[in-house]
Write a structure and sequence with these properties.
- This protein is an alpha+beta fold.
- It is built from 4 helices and 9 strands.
- It is globular.
């Protein structure tokens, strides 16, 4: 186990990947809650962006030293290099992220999002039972972001469901999703 937080990249090989669908569902729940909390019009809430059928695609995940997920990207990236470049930029100034607590999809559930300007860039990875716990989780994620070790390769799902960092990048090119 590493003594530092880490940022891993998860690749989805198709729009039908169950983990991609689960990520999208959770991301949209937190995005909708955020729009409602900020007093967005009902028209805005109905038109939360859904993602095109990009394949392959991927996200980044921020993990604590014990491998517990602290937060995850709010964007679905079409290339590994775009995902890695974006997270490296965010890592340089985590204090510029604004944390907003949001209500979860069921009673007494709370989460958080982190924004940069008008864009949500990171979300919680699980719902908490109180707003204070959600805020504490957000602050832990923001503090861990700047010291996290960033992975060099994306993770892929094998047919057995296990994750691996094996890639099939062409010689001379960067790793692909």
């Amino acid at each position: 186990m590493s003594p530092h937080p880490s940022i891993l990249f998860s690749a989805f090989q198709s729009p039908a990947d169950p983990q991609r669908i689960a990520w999208l569902t959770f991301r949209d729940q937190s995005a909708l809650s955020s729009l409602v909390a900020r007093g967005a019009s009902s028209d805005s809430v109905r038109h939360v962006a859904t993602l095109p059928g990009t394949s392959p695609s991927g996200i980044w995940r921020l993990l604590a030293p014990n491998n517990r997920e602290l937060g995850r990207s709010s964007f679905l990236y079409s290339t590994f290099s775009a995902a890695r470049s974006h997270v490296l930029q965010l890592r340089e100034s985590p204090e510029s992220l604004t944390v907003i607590t949001v209500k979860g999809p069921i009673a007494k559930s709370f989460g958080w999002i982190a924004t940069l300007g008008n864009s949500t860039v990171m979300t919680c990875s699980r719902w908490s039972t109180s707003a204070a716990a959600a805020l504490a989780g957000a602050e832990a994620a923001r503090a861990s972001l700047s010291i996290a070790t960033v992975a060099e390769l994306p993770l892929r799902t094998t047919s057995s469901g296990r994750r691996t960092s094996h890639t099939s990048a062409r010689p001379g090119s960067g790793p692909e999703w």
